[in-house]
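INTERNAL AUDIT FORM
Audit reference: QA-55
Scope: verify that the stored structure record matches its stored sequence.
Auditor: D.O.
Record contents follow.
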Amino acid sequence: MNKVLEIIKTTLPFGLATAMLVGCGSDTSPDQAEQEIIAVKVAKVETLDSGYFNAGSGQITATKSATLSTRMMGFVQRIPVKVGQKVTKGQLLVAIKNVDLQAKKAQAEASILEAKAGFQNAEKDYQRFVNLFNQNSASQKELDDMTSRFEMAKARYEAAQQMMNEVDAQFAYANIRAPFSGMIINTHVDEGTMANPGKPLVSIEAPGAFEVEARVAENQINQLKVGTEANVLVKALDASIKGKLTELSSSAQFSGGQYFAKVLLDNPPEEVRSGMFATVSFAASSAGQESATISIPKTVLVEKGQLNGIYTIGPNNTAILRWLRLGNVIGDEVEVLSGLAIGETYIVSSEGKLFNGAKVAIQ
């Protein structure tokens, strides 16, 4: 070794020889070298919406809506409304070509005129024979015959009127009118296309009253009852709306293992629209549920395979990866069932790539 040192000293400049000696004699590994400090932002673990627990999610729908169809076959002659148009009750929405129905109406009107004339004549004859019978100028047999004639004429007149009522009822399916005041949300046919019995033609809904049709998991269903207060988070509007559970299914046989529930919204804002996604939380006090629900933003999760974790602050300001057991997704938040405690600090964002044991500086 001494010979090697002598060769190095005699053949290399002093500074370079010194550097080589330091390199050869150092016991410091790359892992033990000084690490770069990563700037991070942190937050405290908090409870979600104290007093409420998440139970399901679904879409907002209007409480009063209808999809209209017809019972007759014919070509669509006219659609005088457009999607988004406000309409009043009784306003024409779709007109179906009804030449055959017009002919039936003309026949019914003619039958009514004929039956009415026969009825009026029979009524006059009947009254005349009643007077003659009272004056002993007509026999009982003649009065009975005239009475039968009068009753038959009356029946024919009533039958003609009922035929007209039937034709008028069919016109209700040829001229589709708004059953209530509202807004057109969809037209399912175009002018000139064939309308078939039961085929949707136009959809209408009454704005202002909305509800959420949610799906509730089986582990939550026994904690709910009709009348339970609810909090509805509308993600698109970033708004929370109070509501009340109005319907609750007792079977999940036809709903994919989840239970159907309806929550009526109290005084929804004008920006609410049908089809918006919403997350429903129910009042814990009325459902016998613990109110403290820990939640964190979904954006801070670290995913590795089927594992989910989060970076917390460890001793000496180091990043420590903590694996979590997660529950329901609540809007942009996710419920934490285990792995975190209220008040703990976790990393929200960083200016560099984090890893387990990385040195951090809290901003």
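Auditor finding: record pair retrieved intact. Residues 56-63+209-283 form a domain with the Elongation Factor Tu (Ef-tu); domain 3 fold (CATH 2.40.30.170).
Action required: none
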